[in-house]
Amino acid sequence: MKKNIAIVAGGNSGEYEISIQSGSVVEKNLDTELYNSYIIVIKGSDWYYLDKEGNRFDVDKNEFSIIIQGEKIIFDCVFIAIHGTPGEDGKLQGYFDLLAIPYTSCDQTTCSLTFNKSFCNRIVYSLGVNTAKSILLYKNQKYKTDGIVDEIKLPCFVKPNSGGSSVGITKVEKMENLQDAIKTAFKEDDEVIVEEFIDGTEITCGIIKSKGKVYVLPITEIVSKKEFFDYDAKYTPGMADEITPARISEKTEKECKTTSVYLYENLNCSGLVRFDYILHDELLYFLEVNTVPGLTEDSIIPRQAKVMGISIRQLITMAIEDALDRKSKT
Ligand SMILES: Nc1ncnc2c1ncn2[C@@H]1O[C@H](COP(=O)(O)OP(=O)(O)O)[C@@H](O)[C@H]1O
Ligand SMILES: [Mg+2]
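Above are the sequence and the adenosine-5'-diphosphate SMILES. Below is the predicted complex in structure-token form.
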């Protein structure tokens, strides 16, 4: 019998639209011989399925089900396509754990830890991987911009501590712009991280583990036409070149892949994950990990997989089968 897959998309962050695109790419590429699919949009307390005619069916949150023409639909697996909260920060993972419904991402602990850039950097650093020097500011905490600059130096990056798609991020070149950058980041989050600027080449490595086997995708080099890989560069065609495989030495490629597998295992990741780095003077600096990476037609992971000869359909099937397989072992 075909399995019912809920593709959850939307979410409560600036990445809503991108998530809707990822969700529809997942739906379009789902193997219809194996699965029935339902895109469930989540936005605040609104959770609903929209059918092709535009009829809306609200989700019963007590058991994550919907009723269509008198028939109750329950789900065998959830494909999480929400970037940012509540799909990438552990909240939905905790909810689905309570309901014992398998899902495609990392577990709750890993998602909440890795979505918090400051916590994640500290763990990654303790695992022996280079990270940028940083300080964390809490809302209502008093701070002195000159003290920050003394410690972190300029230029620096100011970011919401938990965020994505570069929303609320500023590269600060001059002391007088730091205050505004901090305010901008605080609009997105109650915690703000100020990070040392790492000058170098941005590279990213996708990994998927399915049924115990780890697949390391080819590395992509990101060349932004903007000052950094900001929102426009990420989503406006032509504003960034994403080159796969990256133009890096064999030694660096090996190191990047080995480091990514090492972090995947040590952060206890599952499913599809992308690790981002900056290569500075042949030294790899960890930038962040994405536990729900973009899956739009133009996203990095589907393109990396393609270069390796894995279609997006295969990738999605691998993620779902892995989620079902993990659950059957618990
Ligand atoms: N410390 C840094 N040094 C250099 N560039 C950075 C640094 N931090 C962020 N960036 C730039 O900003 C982009 C977004 O930062 P990132 O931490 O990945 O946030 P997001 O989760 O929003 O993608 C990166 O892809 C990179 O171009
Ligand atoms: Mg990023």
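The chain is about 30% helix and 30% strand.
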